[in-house]
Structure formats: C-alpha cells, structure tokens
C-alpha cells in the first residue's frame, strides 16, 4: 500500500495521486515537461516523455543576505547553462567569480565550473585576484589532457571575472568578456573591465564603436582560459570606494541587453529599489535578460560596498 | 563478463528534426580466464546428398567435420547430423548428445569416416533435428554448423516455417561448398539464426573454414545476450542494425519488454566488440530541450551489463546541428554498400544491365571511400572498376559463379572507422 504522507489516506499501490488531497503519491518529482508524477529517473530524464527534467545548473542562486547575492540562468535559447559562478561571504568580506564557457569548445560548462571553483578557493585562501585567475587558467588547461580525446581536439575554454571586497577596498581582475561594473548612487554604470574582444580591440584602434559592434566578429573574444589560451595574463585593478554603490559582475548574457551604461545602471537600480532584497534584484536582472530574448546564459552578482566610516 | 556500451552520435538536432541516429559500440572483455558462464552444445550438420560425391566434396566434408570435432573443448556436448532427404543422426546414438573427451572425439571421427553421400537436401528437417537435440540443454551456448552444396529440396515455405519456429534458440553458421547452392537460402538461415554465411568454393578449403567456425564458437562465453532499448512516449525505434563486423537487421526481432522497452537478441558473446546502428523517431522538441531518445542496455536475463544513453538536443545553432558524426555516416554508407551489391547482383541476374551497372558503380564508390578494400576487391571480380571515386564501372562479360557468390555472401562484411571526432 502507498500512503499519502500528508493526509495518511491509504491507497492502492500504483495510484499516481492521493484521492483525498490530490497530492502526488510518487516518490520523485513530477516531470516539468509532461507533468507525469514521479516519473523522473535516476539519470535525470523523464521515464515518460524522455525530456531532461533535472538540470541543476539551469537556474542557481546564492543568497548572501544584505552582503551579496548572485544568480545564474540557462536563458531561453541554449540547451545548458555554460556559465558558472562562485560567491563566498565571510562577515563583510566577499569573494566573487563569474565564468562563461566558450560554446565552440568541447565541454565549456565543465571549463566554467572548474575555473569558478579553482579561482574561488584561491580567493578564499589568499584573496589575491591575479593568482586566483592564473590558478583557474591552469585548472582549465589541464582539462584538455584528462584522457577524453574530444577535449584534446577542442579544449574546454571559458572567460573569467573575479573580485574581492574587503571593507571599502575592491580588487578585480579578468580574462575575456565577462564584466565588472561599478554602479554609483546616481549616474551611469562605470564599466571596470575592458573586454578581451575583437570589437574592443578595433575600437581601441580607432574604428567607430557602432560599426565595430555590428560586425559579426564583434563578440569574438581575444583572451580566454584554456589549453590553447597562450600566454594571456589577467588584467587586474583595485579601488577604494568613496561613496556607497554596488559592484556588479556579469556575463555577456546580461550586458548584451544593456550595452548603454545608463540603461545598465537603471536596470540594476530598478531591481534593487522595486524588489527589496539583493537576491530578488539579481533574479530581476536574469528575468530582464530572459524577457529580452535570453539568447545566452545569464549570470549576475551584486555586492553593495560602503566607504569606510572615517571617510563618511 | 564485463561489458561496455558507448554511444557515438551528433545529439544536436535542427528545430523540427525528429530522427535520432547513434552508433552504439558494445565491447566485452570476455569472462574471467575465458571460462564459459554456462554449458555449451555444438551440432555439426554435414550435407550427405548424392551431389556431394562430385569433386571429392564428401571426402573434404569428412576431413572438415573431423577437424571441427577436434576443436571441441572437453566437456562440451555435441552431435553430428548427416543431412539427406531426412535428418539422420550420425553421432552419437539417435536422440543423444555426446560429452566431448578424447574418447568421444575419436569415436565421432570413426563415425564420420563412415558418412556416405546419397539422398536429397532437406535443410528444414536438418535444423529441426538440431533444435530437438539442443532442447535437451536449455541455457547452454547453443551453436550449429551447417554445410551444404545444393538447393533445398523441401516444399516451398517449409524452411521458412521451421526458421520461424526455432529462431533465436541457437546460432547457425552456414557454409556453401561449390557453386550449386543458393546464397539467398543460406542468408535466410543466417539472418534468422544470428549466424554467418560464406562460400567455400574449393572443397580443399573446407577444413580451414570448419576449424575457424568451431574455434570462434568455442570462444563464446555467454549464451544469450540482448540489447534492451527504452524509448520515450510518442517515439518509436525505426531500426536496429548490427553494422560491424557485418550488417544484420535486428529490427524485426523485437520482443516487447514493458510499456516503452523492447529486447533484441544478440546471440552468444565472447571477448569481442560489435557496433549497432540505432535510429529512433521522436517528437521534436523546442530550442534548448534535451531529450533522452533511447536508453540502450546490454542485458543477460535480468542482469544489466552496460548502459549507454542516446540523446537529442534541439538547437537553432546550425553549426552544431549540421555536424556529421563520423560513425553514423560511415555505417550508413556500409549498410548502403551491402544493399547496392545485393541489388546489383539481382539486376544482373534478371538481365537489367543498366541497373546493375548503376548499383555496382555506387557500391564501388562506397567501398573505396570507406576503405573497405576487401569488398572493393570482390567487386573487381564482377565489374571492371574504371574510377572508384566517381563510381564508374563496366560489367564484366564473363564472371565466375564462385566470384559472384563470394561478393554476394560477403557484401555485408563491414570495416570499422577510425575513432575520435
């Protein structure tokens, strides 16, 4: 006999629903695609319709309360989330990493998860952003030689942006086109990072930004983590906050829909003001990108930073 | 036995696409120390019809049968059937199975020397007797060797009805000696009984052929291995084909197993590796959807030895969906190669030279492109290959019957493609 745990009404084994309260009697979760109760098998596929029901990385959140929050989402078009993130909160200290797998490489989702994990652990032990990115670079490069021939042919690769916040001190570093922004109390967002991308490169050489961004190669990145990354070195910088604001790290799945710095800042502020908590604001931003088309995976991390008491 | 099952496919499908293809490679490391996990029984069926007197065939068949008996391991059950207008058991006593030992092997040899050729050909009756003898040893690795030199003399449809009743109970490897037998008849037996078929044009080569078949049979360590395929609702298995070492369509051998699964018999297994092409029709998903199109398991009874997943991921990224998987493309070509050769032979026989030239041309092209040199060489005995790359061939005026039959029987032999993507 199968017993409904909620209303203790016994029913014949095999019944899909409790006839008293209507709850599913099956042990497993219902399939989100066909609705079959308890049909999701051990390998994550629905035993009924075959659809992949359990994809843990489709939407993940880290809620650091008032100190920090981050969210990552698969988006609308990609079949898996190849972004990865790391957010660690210790008292007021924050370590944060956002990585975006390079879709044209093999197993980019593994690359991003490996990089975020390796960099995050290094940040926790040393707080050194440059060292953390180099550690991540080494870890991702090693994926190409772990025995899978497909990884050797097209080595896993990803971008990285990492930051540590210690009181009013913010240190950040990056390789690729995942970005860090500073959102002051008012005015447009300040882009802290400079993309390692074809568009950024030719704009620096004098090409009109609008023309450069319209080029199909605009988003081709010129720096990444991976076995074929060459001698690329992370760029890093730090600053001391003098007025309250928010540090935002994100993948191009978000900033592609908010290329204008004023619009970016406005979207972040709307999230913060209208949705109360940091995690709700992060969720608002992933929803924003999804509503705009969700063409890529979306990851965003929000960290409020205050100036030190002496400067106030 | 330790098995592995590995799927090779391009899981990315264009939006709206509903056909999922994968090559599943099943490899067994064999049982520990090569010991059988069950008993084994061998039946040797030797055609003793009157025509076997020609070209010293009956004498060659005696030598070959004795050589095969010498290859039977101690402890394996065996019997020998003399094939005439009826089935007569030559060794041991009618209705009995012998247990191989130095003594029974020498007694069998003595009996074989007394085999005389006189009478007709009745393959259905021969196989029926083999089935009755093998039924005494359920659970054994059951295998028979059938040798013939002529057409089946039984009434039309009898062999087919026998095959229907015994299919899947044991494996039969068939050999035709000379050129007066029909490839289509022995292929029917091979298809139904999951065995091989080949021509032994020269009686002198029979001994080597029998030794090879028996040695191969002795290498089998598991009796009844099956492929179990689960598919989701609103989807169906379009075909399941063994594509290496030779093409064999298993689609019709489907035995339902639960609401969404079915089993396909793979016969006995030793230390070996085989490739299967599985094609599933599914309901298309939307962009980003990932579906399990098939869960393919290697099973023996209730034991699952290995499992592999065939997936479908729909994407609007054409760079992904247009990737061609080398394994799938290669074996699709090998199956087409076998079909083209058989169609070419059929057309040539019916006097349709135009179709024959077309089919053989396509076959030459496929054999060349896939590096199947053995088949390309066999083709060259039937047609002059002017340019294999473009498939330009000319029919040869005079073709030796043995060459054409060799091409026909071996048309299903495939080669493997280099691995890695």
From TrEMBL, chain A:
Coiled-coil positions? none
The PPM-type phosphatase domain sits at 67-305
Could you identify this protein by its name? Serine/threonine protein phosphatase PrpC
Q: Which organism is it from?
A: Paractinoplanes atraurantiacus
Taxonomic lineage of the native organism: Bacteria, Bacillati, Actinomycetota, Actinomycetes, Micromonosporales
UniProtKB/TrEMBL annotation, chain B:
**From what superkingdom does this record's organism come?**
Bacteria
InterPro entries assigned to the protein according to its UniProt record, in alphabetical order: CLCR, VWA_3_C, VWF_A, vWFA_dom_sf
Q: Where is the VWFA domain?
A: 41-218
User: Protein name, please?
Assistant: von Willebrand factor type A domain-containing protein
Pfam families under this entry?
Answer: VWA_3, VWA_3_C
Q: Which organism is it from?
A: Paractinoplanes atraurantiacus
